[in-house]
Design goal:
With about 450 residues, this protein is α+β, with helices and mostly antiparallel strands. It contains 12 helices and 17 strands. Among the domains are: about 200 residues, no CATH class; about 70 residues, no CATH class.
């Protein structure tokens, strides 16, 4: 009888289906024999949602290539001040609900609302006399950089996804529970750590630092090329690639997850390994409709961690070779440095998303020019079905893209995004962003 990887509860055919790589990220590995319903619900609510949020703008851009259930019509956004919610529908961002705010310096009360109907409902339910309010010009000052925020919860989700994915894929290949490395006593500490951190409002980041080794934003393609040759597998654009390898000299098991082929997250699964050497890779296709595969070898991967630009959870770059790197990574670092790093990454969110957008452009191989791509994307994603004439539209601001080499995309991306926005607004015959109307008490 199957048991939960983390709680040891007995599972049955009625256990909820678990996506070990999040469904929201295009995961295709599913099982009813890896985690209990209670564990599934708790992690989905408390940690998995944070990881999914980190990539939802990217998933939104990939929507035309994904399964129907991932092409969500409405994307919910939260402002950085956590006071306002917005919905992005067909490319248009609108205020989701009415809210009140007070200027602490003047004591004046303001009401921000999406439309007159919603304002009347809000006033009626809260006993507000609208005659005592006056209209103001709305201010477009809303920021969404937090959409790319990196949190302790997302790191915990990464570790959980790696463990459950290898557990399920090994089970599919005939390994009994006692034969899977994911369930061996050497990995009990990390399994217990994940279990203990769920539902916490303040996480043990010193212990998390011991397991979560860092993120590499810059060397993914080079690493994926090496891994493809090592395991003799084909790796496509935006595949999820999970790898695990032993290092008998250091007695550790190291794992990595290259999420959507864009950034590599490194994890130390145990530091007292005494078993045989092995390495494994999981390939979960996102764009191509292929079943996930796992390949195992009885040898280690010496090059898995050796990059100079590996950012720890604490943003400490590592310039040394593997043994020194591992020693540095298990050192204790104060909690405030962790949150300083989150701030650092959020400040660079625009640059990171630009890089991602340039990669998304490259998989549209049937297009010869960026202008053609832009026009088609407007038609497919951001216009109503009635807007048939949009394909005939020509935008002078896009003419220059005819001669742009896709490999030079980064040098012109800022102007392109601006033109992209102009084109969307033209096609929709309205602005893409509606910050809401505002009134204040007189």
């Amino acid at each position: 009888m199957a048991t939960c990887l983390f709680t040891s509860e007995t599972l049955s055919s009625s256990t909820k289906l678990e996506h070990t790589i999040l469904k929201a990220l295009g995961g295709r590995i599913t099982s009813r024999e890896v985690v209990s319903d209670n564990f599934n619900t708790r992690t989905g609510k408390d940690i998995d949602c944070k990881l999914a949020d980190q990539f939802k703008l990217i998933i939104r851009e990939l929507a035309p290539f994904l399964s129907t259930d991932l092409r969500k019509k409405r994307l919910k956004l939260e402002s950085d001040d956590q006071k306002r919610s917005y919905y992005k529908t067909n490319g248009i961002v609108e205020l989701a609900e009415t809210y009140e705010t007070i200027d602490f310096l003047t004591g004046i009360k303001y009401i921000v609302f999406p439309n007159e109907e919603e304002l009347k409902k809000y006033a009626l339910s809260n006993g507000i006399d609208l005659k005592s309010y006056e209209y103001l010009e709305p201010v477009d000052d809303v920021l969404f950089t937090g959409l790319y925020s990196i949190s302790p919860e997302s790191h915990l989700s990464v570790i959980k996804c790696i463990l459950t994915s290898f557990d399920v894929m090994l089970a599919r290949n005939g390994y009994s529970e006692e034969k899977r490395f994911t369930r061996l006593p050497a990995l009990l500490p990390i399994r217990n750590f994940i279990l203990s951190e769920i539902n916490k409002t303040r996480h043990n980041v010193e212990l998390l630092d011991n397991y979560f080794l860092g993120i590499d934003f810059f060397n993914c393609k080079q690493l994926l090329s090496l891994l493809g040759k090592h395991f003799e597998v084909d790796i496509e654009e935006f595949d999820h690639i999970m790898v695990v390898t032993t290092n008998k000299d250091l007695h550790v098991i190291i794992a990595s997850w290259c999420i959507l082929g864009l950034e590599n997250h490194y994890v130390k699964l145990c530091d007292n390994w005494t078993g045989d050497s092995f390495s494994m890779i999981i390939v979960n296709s996102v764009i191509e409709n292929k079943q996930p595969i796992i390949v195992k070898k009885c040898e280690e991967i010496p090059f898995l961690i050796g990059h100079k630009n590996l950012y720890k959870a604490f943003c400490h770059g590592c310039d040394k070779q593997l043994p020194v790197t591992i020693c540095q990574m298990i050192s204790k670092i104060r909690e405030y440095e962790y949150y300083d790093t989150i701030t650092y990454v959020e400040m660079h969110a625009d640059d990171l998303l630009k890089n991602v957008f340039s990669e998304i452009i490259k998989i549209h191989k049937e297009y010869h020019t960026l202008k053609e791509l832009a026009l088609d994307r407007i038609y497919k994603l951001f216009c109503s079905d009635e807007c048939k004439a949009v394909k005939k539209l020509t935008f002078e601001s896009l003419e220059k893209w005819d001669s742009v080499d896709i490999n030079d995309f980064e040098s012109v991306i800022t102007d392109f995004i601006r033109d992209y926005r102009i084109a969307f607004e033209h096609a929709n015959k309205q602005p893409l962003f509606h910050p809401g109307k505002i009134i204040r008490k007189m």
